[in-house]
Structures are given as C-alpha cells and as structure tokens.
Amino acid sequence: MAEEKDFLPNLLTEEMKHSNGDFVAPDGLCWLSVLSCLLLACSYVGSLYVWRSDLPRDHPTVIKRRFTSVLIVSGLSPLFVWAWREFTGVRTGPSLLALMGIRFEGLIPAVILPLALTMVLFLGPLMQLAMDCPWSFMDGMRVAFDPWFWMLCFSDMRWLRNQVVAPLTEELVFRACMLPMLVPCAGPSIAIFTCPLFFGVAHFHHVIELLRFRQGTLSGIFLSAGHLMGPVLCHSFCNYMGFPAISTALEHPHRLTVLSSYLLGVLLFLLFLFPFTDPSYYGLPTPVCTLTSSPSSLCLS
C-alpha cells in the first residue's frame, strides 16, 4: 500500500497540504469544478442548436453544420480544464494532455482491453446478429477489409456522426475534460457516477441518459486506463449496436441460445471487469488518479 501511494505525487501548492503532506482540496474547489463542468456541458449541447433550420436532424446539411460547431467547442474544451487548473492552483506532474488521457504509454492495451470487455457485455446481441445475418464469416471479413466499404461509410453523414464525431467529441468533453476537474474534490468513485449527470443535463431531451449504465462504465474505463481512445472506441461500438433488442430475443427461433448468450455475456463482463480495468496494464500511475490522495481501487493495481 505504501508503494501504491508513492505513485500519487503531492500537489505543489502549499495551501493544499496538511503538515503531513496529504492533499487538501482548496476552498471552493468543488463548486468551481461543478460550475466548470456544467458550463462545458451547456456549451457543448448549445453548439448543436446555434443553427436555425426546419430540416430534420438527420439531414446532411444539419449534420454538417453541427459538426462545425461541436468540433469548435470540443477543440476549445481543454481550455476549460486549463482555466480550472489555473484558478484552483492545482499542480501535478502529468501534463494537461496526459490528465485528459492523451498519451502514448499503455495505448495498445487501452485500445484492445476496454473494447474486448464491451464486446463481452454485448455477447447476446452479437450472437443474435450473427445468427440472423445472411452473410458468412468470410463474407464479413472481405467487407471489413474492403476500402470501398469504408469510403462509403465515411461519405455517410449519419454514420460519420454516430461512429466517429459523436463518440470522439462527447468522450473528450464529458470524460477527458470533466473527470480531471471532478476527481480532486469528489474522488474517483463518486466522479464516475457524477460525470453521467452532466451528460444527462446536457442531453435533457434524453432523460434516459441519467440512468445509463454505459456512461458510468466508460468513466471507469477512463480512470483505470488513463486513455481517451478506449472510451471513444467503446462509445462508437455501443452506438453501432444500439440498445439490446431483448423483446426480439424473446421471440427468436433459437430463443434459448440467444438468451443464454445474453446471460453469459453479463456474467463474463462482471468476471472480467476488474481484471481488464487493472491500471497496471496501462502504465501506472494513470495521470488523472494523481489528482487525489485517496484513490479508489480504480486507481490502484
């Protein structure tokens, strides 16, 4: 345990230390963190509605306009973290980009393991999809490696929004920028459950976001791996799969096999959750965890 605490450097500001050197949150840190996150969330969702149009949201023109505004806000979002750090006086060894999960150390396992864990959770829907798909496995492989297929995908504005722009910008804003501001005052565990609330507030037209298990899982992955790409890929995969069609599974001709796959996927997910989110796979210390002196098991190997 003493060795683990050595990975958590003391913050440099004197008023943030006790006589024994432990981290002490400066007065007003939590209020400033919450207000910063709320402002960032409102800026993100507000950027989607700056364009007035009678066209439906899936129209290519509407999607392109929203791409422009949301990419601008997302590109400026690190400034919120920088301003928060300057106002609070929080100083740590890791750089601002590292705190936001933009780093090379442990990148490969941070890409593979979280995505594999998410696919395990979706074992039931994947089994159902495979059984209903008219293509053979080799047909699917040929399509996956066909450059014309990917050119077609990237020319589809809805695909580009759901699989690339939305996962990348939302994870950058609601995970990479908010968690570094929430962890110092709330701690890793509470921050995991607090972060989805801002996502739900920003997406007030989707109240279900307040209750989505996925958001907490992605926050946990970010804290454990300390990388942005893991949550981005998992988010993209979840968007592709959609909400599990359990009602369809109950009426499937091979109902027993499909439902068994659903159950097995959940059990395997719970079994592999902690091993696959062990920070030692991704290079200790995960930078965002250096912002607290009382890390949860998410920040310790």
Automatic annotation (TrEMBL):
Catalytic reaction annotation: Hydrolyzes the peptide bond -P2-(S-farnesyl or geranylgeranyl)C-P1'-P2'-P3'-COOH where P1' and P2' are amino acids with aliphatic sidechains and P3' is any C-terminal residue
Say if the entry is tagged with keyword Kinase. no
Q: Which family does it belong to?
A: Belongs to the peptidase U48 family.
Give the species: Seriola lalandi dorsalis
Task: Please give, as recorded in its UniProt entry, the membrane topology of this protein.
Answer: Multi-pass membrane protein
Q: What is this protein called?
A: CAAX prenyl protease 2
User: What GO molecular function terms would the record report?
Assistant: metalloendopeptidase activity
Q: Which biological process annotations from GO are given for this protein?
A: CAAX-box protein processing
Q: Which domain of life is it from?
A: Eukaryota
Location comes to:
Endoplasmic reticulum membrane
